[in-house]
Amino acid sequence: MATETAPTPLSTEAVFDLVGPAYEDAFAGLPTQAASIQWILSQLSAAGISPAKTVDIGCGTGKPVCFDLAAAGHDVLGLDISGAMVHAARARVPLARFEKVDIRDFRPGAGTYDVATAYFSLIAGVTQDEIRGVLAQVFGILKPGGLFVWSTVPLDAEKADISWMGKPVTVSSLAPEAAVEAVKAAGFVVEHEAVTKFTPKGAEAGICKPEDVWEETHLFVYAKKPVV
Predict the structure, then answer these.
(1) What is the CA radius of gyration of the chain?
(2) What CDD domains does the record point to (predicted)?
(3) In angstroms, rounded to a whole number, what is the distance separating the alpha carbons of residues 180 and 101?
(4) Domain limits of the chain?
(5) Which region, left, alpha or beta, applies to residue 159 given φ > 0 means left and ψ of -120 to 50 means alpha?
(6) Architecture category of domain 12-224 in CATH
(7) Are the C-beta atoms of residues 225 and 50 closer than 8 Å to each other?
(8) pTM
(9) How far apart are CA 117 and CA 69, in angstroms?
(10) Which tens digit of pLDDT belongs to each residue from 16-40?
(11) What is the dihedral of CA 7, 11, 13, 14, to 10 degrees?
């Protein structure tokens, strides 16, 4: 009897090109994300920073993050490895700018940004060391006092081959305590951390079959770069 072989994992770019704009529908109404955007906006308002220079790493379709920040009058750059996502973002959020680039290849000047965000973008196609490296990279591109919001699916995983919404992909992540410690090790002061649960509407969005969706654990971290 022939044995069934596991499908070859897709590249991160290929996965999100396939998922495309439907990702926005699958994760619509994520309350922890909405709360984090409001934290950023309130912090900027309290500091009198307007327009703030902001960068969203793994911006997807640009909604809600880039859309909300741009609508509030801030200077927004969205980065994504997927050409399909960048194309959708440019159409959905004309007030922001978007570039197709891997964050590991992004080289702005040090201290360029007031705000950086990375929502579930440091998981697919990276190693644990690369996650820590990007956190340090983000610290470097922020101005003193800069804000950082990071969300991830916090698991102790190193180059694990999984099926995510029916798509074979290789992922890495850090367990909750290790993830928070990695943010601190990069130099940040952690202002808030929370672990919650959310079930994406992947089947309703037409991305996959109902059996390909599961309840996800989410970690949200709010952090600041010290002023001195």
Answers:
(1) 17
(2) AdoMet_MTases
(3) 26
(4) 12-224
(5) left
(6) 3-Layer(aba) Sandwich (3.40)
(7) no
(8) 0.95
(9) 11
(10) 999 999 999 999 999 999 999 999 9
(11) -30
